[in-house]
């Protein structure tokens, strides 16, 4: 019998992660209306009508209840895009009890996790072009670590726990990116915009669509831009983003459908990137954003709902990868085995018998029945919380 550890939980073909940047204690009014309008909130308005969370829940998450979202939280008072510009409301995450309560409410939702996205997001200048992203402002490793730890403490003050992972602001790592992340206790990090491989045909080896270790931290790839529109989203016809998608199709024969299909075919990570709000202080629309892209997101998640995918938060993804990377299956005879791990005494993982659709069950060493295998993608598989270094048996049933 040939046993293997499945690449992804429940022998799914690909994991799907929904990643939303720049949740913050910020609001930015665009209209003269006294009531909150859709898009004007970056998180400050919590669960109010037309808030970021209200819009996202009603227009996407409630329709696709399996989606798992990782939000990237700006912890301190965020800077504007240029000096002199202002948000309507802008404070650190620990300044309002209501906002802390909202963050706690999000964090208690098993389909949501909050991750780290810096303190101020960077340094504004007179011109927008001179904006420095947060990691670009760190001139020494010591200072980088000091600032990250200050942000981690703000996160902990609000939520009672430290963030497990995060993402650079603007994907800019500066001179001390990797070292500063490795030295500040993160389990995973989104280091790059990896969709650049598809978008710009980059061959740079730093970018890829799979998980890997970077100085002991899991590098989670970001692979799909939520504003790459399907050409079937006719509501966005004649918008700049639609024309770009049309250009990609006509000139390069690329569509978002083919990109997702290729990730899926190769069992790679499908991680969809979004921003919480369209509005910035300079009056420009930031893309991607959940409001402009909502029809496209509904289209993408409908497409994915017909596939065999595993919806996961970034931390769940990282944890599965860590256990898979540390596990070895040792066969003791044809149907008895142990899982060996240097790291832990118990581990939840998915074992598979490849290309085998017979009926099997897992037993303990005293032949006591534990669980039946299931069959999917031509393989028999079982997800179970195993004890490591303990003998298990598999028998046909
Ligand atoms: Zn950001």
Overview of the structural elements:
The chain has helices spanning 52-61, 97-107, 141-159, 177-182, 196-199, 240-252, 256-265, 294-305, 314-326, and strands at residues 3-5, 14-23, 26-27, 69-73, 89-90, 112-116, 122-123, 132-133, 165-167, 188-190, 212-214, 217-219, 224-225, 270-275, 309-311, 327-331, 336-341, 346-353, 360-364, 369-372, 374-376, 379-387, 392-396. By secondary structure, the chain is of the alpha/beta class. A hairpin with a 4-residue loop joins strand 16 (327-331) and strand 17 (336-341). The longest helix is centred in the middle third of the chain and has 19 residues, at 141-159. The strands form 6 sheets. Strands 2, 4, 6, 13, 14 and 15 form a 6-stranded parallel beta sheet that branches. It has a 5-stranded antiparallel beta sheet with strand order 16-17-23-19-20. It has a 4-stranded antiparallel beta sheet with strand order 1-18-22-21. The protein contains 9 helices and 23 strands. The chain binds zinc ion (ZN). Zinc ion (ZN) binds at residues 21-22, 117, 121, 169.
- Rg over CA atoms, rounded to whole Å, is 23 Å
- The poorly predicted ranges are none
CATH superfamily of the largest domain: Glycoside hydrolase/deacetylase
Assign a percent range to the helix content: 10-25%
């Amino acid at each position: 019998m040939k046993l293997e550890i499945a690449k992804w939980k429940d022998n799914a073909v690909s994991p799907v992660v929904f990643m939303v940047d720049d949740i913050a204690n910020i609001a930015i009014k665009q209209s003269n209306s006294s009531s909150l309008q859709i898009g004007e909130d970056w998180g400050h308005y919590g669960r109010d009508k037309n808030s970021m969370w209200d819009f996202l829940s009603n227009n996407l998450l409630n329709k696709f209840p399996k989606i798992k979202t990782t939000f990237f939280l700006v912890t301190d008072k965020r800077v504007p895009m240029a000096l002199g510009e202002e948000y309507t409301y802008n404070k650190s995450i620990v300044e309002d009890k209501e906002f802390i309560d909202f963050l706690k409410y999000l964090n208690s939702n098993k389909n949501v996790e909050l991750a780290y996205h810096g303190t101020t997001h960077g340094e504004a200048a007179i011109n927008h072009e001179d904006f420095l992203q947060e990691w670009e402002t760190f001139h020494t490793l010591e200072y980088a670590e000091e600032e990250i730890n200050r942000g981690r403490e703000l996160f902990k003050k609000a939520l009672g726990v430290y963030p497990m992972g995060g993402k650079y602001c603007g994907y800019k790592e500066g001179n001390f990116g990797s070292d500063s992340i490795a030295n500040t206790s993160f389990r995973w990090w989104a280091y790059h915009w990896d969709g650049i491989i598809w978008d710009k045909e980059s061959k740079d080896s730093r970018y890829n669509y799979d998980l890997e270790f970077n100085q002991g931290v899991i590098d989670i790839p970001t692979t799909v831009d939520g504003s790459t529109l399907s050409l079937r989203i006719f509501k966005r016809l004649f918008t700049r983003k639609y024309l770009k998608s049309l250009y990609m199709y006509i000139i390069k024969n690329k569509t978002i459908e083919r990109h997702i299909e290729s990730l899926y075919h190769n069992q790679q990570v499908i991680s969809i990137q979004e921003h919480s709000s369209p509005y910035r202080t300079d009056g420009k629309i930031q893309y991607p954003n959940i409001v402009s892209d909502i029809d496209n997101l509904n289209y993408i998640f409908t497409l994915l709902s017909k596939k065999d995918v595993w919806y996961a938060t970034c931390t769940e993804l990282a944890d599965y990868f860590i256990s898979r990377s540390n596990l070895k299956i040792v066969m003791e005879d044809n149907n008895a085995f142990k899982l060996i791990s240097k790291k832990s005494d118990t581990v939840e993982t998915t074992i598979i018998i490849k290309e085998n659709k017979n009926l099997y069950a897992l037993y303990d060493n005293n032949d006591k029945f534990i669980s039946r295998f299931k069959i999917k993608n031509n393989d028999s598989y079982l997800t179970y919380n195993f004890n490591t270094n303990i003998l298990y048996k598999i028998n046909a049933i």
